Amino acid sequence: MAARWLLRTLRGLCGAALFLSQLSVLSGRAGSLMTTKLSQPQSTLAKSLTSTSTNAPYFKAVESTEIPPYVIKCPSNGLCSRLPADCMTCNTNYSCIYGKPATFDCKVKPHVHCVDENNLEQENFTINMTCQFCWQLATSDYVCTNSTNCMTVSCPRQRYNATCTVRDHIHCLGNRVFPKMLYCNWTGGYKWSTALALSITLGGFGADRFYLGQWREGLGKLFSFGGLGIWTLIDVLLIGVGYVGPADGSLYI
Fold first, then answer.
1. What pLDDT does residue 164 have?
2. Predominant location of this chain (predicted)?
3. For the chain, N or C: smaller number of CB within 10 Å?
4. Is 230 within a domain?
């Protein structure tokens, strides 16, 4: 009797355990289904937001209305062929012959307005110019920086590195700003006529040398009475031909 009762008890316990295990499995599946259903709209919403922000932004970039600085140099409603070089963009004519006239196709830059000979506004036009690089232009076609650190009165003549810029209405090939070696050519304000007059009248006292900033030579002439007149005559000739100049190496006015 005890054995049968024990067997029935074990069967009951096994059945209860099996029921609990099936119940836990079913509850787990239901939870996963609910999580999937809840998360699916969120993922769809996230995708829609992502696609919207990437492909179709709500706010478009505002176009810049700032006027470029080169427009100041460009006259309004003037002839296109007479515009400064900074107001146009031209195609390089690779078939031009150096030193010969050539035609170049050009187009005005944005915000620039010009007209043709018939007073009609145009954007594309042609210009005629000599086929040569900017650094090969005549000295009157560009402006260069000056140097006050070199001697103009020296042998051989000294040069200095200058930065040159082509004038606005001159057209040429290559860079419009270029370096160039130039001879020293500047003035310190000394007049040739004044130096010569002092040499003739007061040269025996060294006034001409003092005026030119040559203090040692001036003192020498002063205490030697112009080298007894010989030094005075020589300085008159040297200043007259321009061989003796200011001590700072500049040119006479």
1. 94
2. membrane
3. N
4. yes
92 versus 142: which is more confidently predicted? 142
| pTM across the whole model | 0.51
Is 76 contained in some domain? Answer: yes
219 found inside a domain: yes
Buried b (16+ CB within 10 A) or exposed e, 157-183: eeebebebebeeebbbbeebebeeebe
Which span out of 9-13, 17-21, 249-253 was modeled with the highest average pLDDT? 249-253
Give the structural domain span for 168: 142-183
Which alpha helices (H) appear in 56-147, and where do they start and end? none
Q: Which of 142, 208, 197 is nearest to 169 (CA)?
A: 142
Q: Report the C-alpha gap between 197 and 213 in whole angstroms.
A: 16
Whether residues 157 and 106 share a domain: the answer is no
Looking at the predicted structure, is the pLDDT value of residue 66 above 60?
Answer: yes
Is residue 89 domain-shared with residue 122, that is, in the same domain? Answer: yes
Same domain, 178 and 149: yes
CA angle 124, 129, 135 (to 5 degrees): 120
Q: What does the alpha-carbon distance between residue 56 and residue 136 come to, in Å, rounded to a whole number?
A: 54
Buried b (16+ CB within 10 A) or exposed e, 213-248: ebeebbeebeeeebeeeebbeebbeebeeeebbbbb
> What does the DSSP assignment read for 30-76?
HHHHHHHHHHHHHHHHHHHHHHHHHHS-SSPPPPP-PPPGGGGGS-T
- The sign of the dihedral angle between the CA atoms of 214, 219, 220, 222 is positive
- Helix, strand, coil in percent for the chain, rounding step 5: 45, 20, 35
Instruction: Name beta bridge partners: 143.
Output: 165
8-state DSSP, 91: -
- Distance between CA atoms of residues 194 and 207, nearest Å: 11
Q: Choose the final residue of a domain: 102, 131, 160.
A: 131
